[in-house]
Write a structure and sequence with these properties.
Helix content is 28%, strand content 13%. The chain is α+β, with helices and mostly antiparallel strands. The protein folds into two domains: 47 residues, no CATH class; 49 residues, no CATH class. Strands 1-2 form a two-stranded parallel ribbon. The protein is globular and about 35 Å long.
Length: 101
């Protein structure tokens, strides 16, 4: 899990704590986790999120890395447009940004 977080999700490895690793692992093990971003732990690195976004009812903010290795921020904006009622904001996260939790 730590390797996945360091190499794919976080730009700054030193900010990843054991508590974060535990939380991401617990999330990936939840019922219906195949719909979560952490489905990649089971080898489902790429799944069609566009089939789930239109049915989303929970107000959601998409935060997209400007340097994403997988898809561009433009793709993220198109994804958000699939359900403008539920996706209340789209934020492009600059590579150097730091947003404390």
């Amino acid at each position: 899990m730590r390797n996945f977080l360091e190499n794919f999700l976080f730009a700054e490895r030193s900010r990843i704590t054991q508590e974060m690793v535990n939380a991401y692992l617990a999330s990936a093990l939840q019922l219906n986790a195949e719909c979560a971003a952490l489905a990649s732990l089971r080898g489902d690195l790429f799944f069609d999120l566009s089939t789930y976004v239109p049915t989303l009812k929970t107000p959601t903010v998409l935060i997209w890395g400007s340097q994403s290795r997988f898809r561009s921020p433009g793709f993220g904006r198109r994804l958000a447009a699939l359900n403008a009622d539920a996706i209340v904001a789209f934020m492009k996260l600059p590579m150097q940004a730091y947003y404390p939790i």
